[in-house]
Design brief:
490 residues, alpha/beta, TIM Barrel, M1 Pyruvate Kinase, Domain 3, 8-stranded parallel beta barrel, 16 helices
Length: 490
């Protein structure tokens, strides 16, 4: 393969820059009527430029750019137009062409500074000596045991998560009080439950353990069941059943039980289990139910959410918006928050990305949230993996991080992080690698469990170690300590 000349590469990049500028202006124009938060405009413009850039395939010239020791634009998320300008200026110099002004390096660092400010606002300052922060989901004992919370703070917690699907307002207030007493710097995130569909009741002769080939009747109410049904389940949003069709999939308990619709009638579906462990899976009330083949149209705020918001506005530093899917969902949430906080600045909002529609709408969700106030995003890998499929999940978590970096929006890497260590006191090898991958996010979330403090200290150690080697998508070439010179002689 013949290496293109700097002049040829310059022409290609100049054409790319012109296309990106034109396309990004069109994207931004579609948002401009919505953007009212002036500090968000630079981030929105860069997001538009990144979306425009990623419409183009430049993989064929990236090796040539690298051969000249130039940027291949593979790390341009935070500063798209500045990266293109710098590349054009450098290629012009290599080609001996005048007319390209020098680009001040400070421009390339502005996106990184904006992201760091947003990270500190959302997740607190660094207290573990690492770029990435640690978020902890609080168990109910955090409401009654200040020493337990103090231990979490000492282990590295800079953001405490309260899941409003559990406990009550009195417990939430006690949790927050204990957190702020133990660590005044620590942020308090409160998740509203959102329209999460769950198993409501189970009717069977014995405790149910499902195996492949077993059948379940899922009904809107028990009048739709028959005497031949061995296992009958009701769900919290029975209206969904009317939308299901033959062969569509229904997943239960974060994907541990996979079923397929074998018959559907008004208010009832028959399901056959096609995925479960060989020893079977228990079917229990309150476990989540996912419908990846449906685009659900449930209200983004339930009646319980509206009640919970009355307490959240006086307790939380950040509101986690579960199952947000459309920009109008955010309009509704911000309206409800404003009514409860008249005259006060808007509470920061965490977008919990849990459905394919939320992924598809993510740019618009970021703009809608960013125009109102500070925003972050959580890769909620539990529901998202079930909805997308596990293979697709492996790449979409990367794409979400890239997109959010372009918008200068901090990201939380969540669900099953070091789950074995948190629950059983010993991590798996795969979990350790996952924790290392999480270092590229601005925050990592650990769920509750008996070995939570130990897991936090282990995670902090992993994050510090990975900081020596990686910063977002950039490899750091610090010295390697595993192979001292004395060990290299033959």
């Amino acid at each position: 393969m013949t290496l293109p000349s700097p002049d040829d590469l310059l022409q290609r990049i100049e054409h790319l820059r012109a296309d990106v500028l034109e396309e990004s202006e069109a994207i931004f124009k579609g948002w401009s009527t919505e953007i009212g938060h002036h500090r968000f405009v630079p981030a929105a413009r860069n997001l538009a430029a990144y979306l425009a850039l990623r419409r183009h395939d430049i993989s064929d010239i990236q090796p040539a750019l690298a051969a000249y020791a130039l940027s291949s634009l593979g790390r341009s998320e935070g500063h798209v137009m500045a990266s293109l300008d710098a590349l054009c200026a450098t290629l012009a110099r290599l080609a001996g062409l005048p007319g390209h002004d020098y680009l001040w390096p400070d421009t390339l660092a502005s996106g990184e500074r904006a992201l760091h400010r947003a990270q500190t606002l959302m997740f607190g300052p660094d207290i573990i000596g690492a770029r990435t922060r640690i978020m902890v989901t609080l168990p109910v004992e955090a409401a009654t045991d200040p020493a337990f919370v103090q231990n979490l703070a000492g282990a590295g917690m800079s953001c405490a998560r309260i899941n409003c699907a559990h406990d009550d307002a009195a417990a939430w207030q006690a949790m927050a009080d204990n957190v702020r007493a133990a660590a005044p710097h620590c942020r308090v995130l409160m998740d509203i439950g959102g329209p999460k569909c769950r198993i409501e009741t189970i009717h069977a002769a014995d405790k149910v353990r499902l195996h492949r080939g077993d059948r379940i009747a899922m009904v809107g109410d028990l009048s739709r069941a028959t005497a031949a049904d061995k296992v009958i389940a009701t769900i919290t949003f029975p209206e969904i059943l009317a939308e299901l069709a033959l062969d569509q999939k229904v997943w239960i308990n974060d994907g541990k039980i996979g079923t397929r619709v074998t018959a559907a009638a008004d208010g009832r579906v028959d399901l056959e289990v096609f995925s479960a462990r060989a020893k079977g899976e228990r079917l229990r009330p309150k476990k989540g139910v996912n419908f990846p083949d449906l685009e659900l149209h449930l209200s983004p705020l339930t009646d319980k959410d509206l009640i919970d918001l009355d307490a959240i506005v006086s307790i939380a530093d950040i509101v986690g918006f579960s199952f947000v899917q459309r920009p109008e969902d955010l309009t509704l949430l911000h309206g409800e928050l404003a009514r409860r906080r008249p005259g006060l600045p808007p509470l920061p909002v965490m977008l919990k990305i849990e459905t394919p529609l939320a992924v598809r709408n993510l740019p618009r969700l970021i703009v809608q949230a960013g125009m109102a106030g500070p925003v972050a995003a959580m890769i909620a890998r539990g529901d998202l993996a079930v909805e997308l499929g596990f293979a697709r999940m492996s790449e979409i978590q990367e794409e979400i991080m890239w997109l959010c970096e372009a918008a200068h929006v901090p990201v939380v890497w969540a669900t099953q992080v070091l789950e074995g260590l948190v629950s059983d006191g010993m991590p798996t090898r795969a979990e350790t690698t996952d924790a290392a991958m999480a270092q590229r996010a601005e925050c990592v979330m650990l769920n509750k469990g008996p070995f939570l403090p130990e897991a936090m200290r282990f995670l902090a150690d992993v994050l510090r170690r990975m900081d020596r080697h990686q910063a977002k998508k950039s490899a750091r070439f610090g010295p390697l300590h595993s192979w001292p010179a004395a060990d290299l002689a033959l």
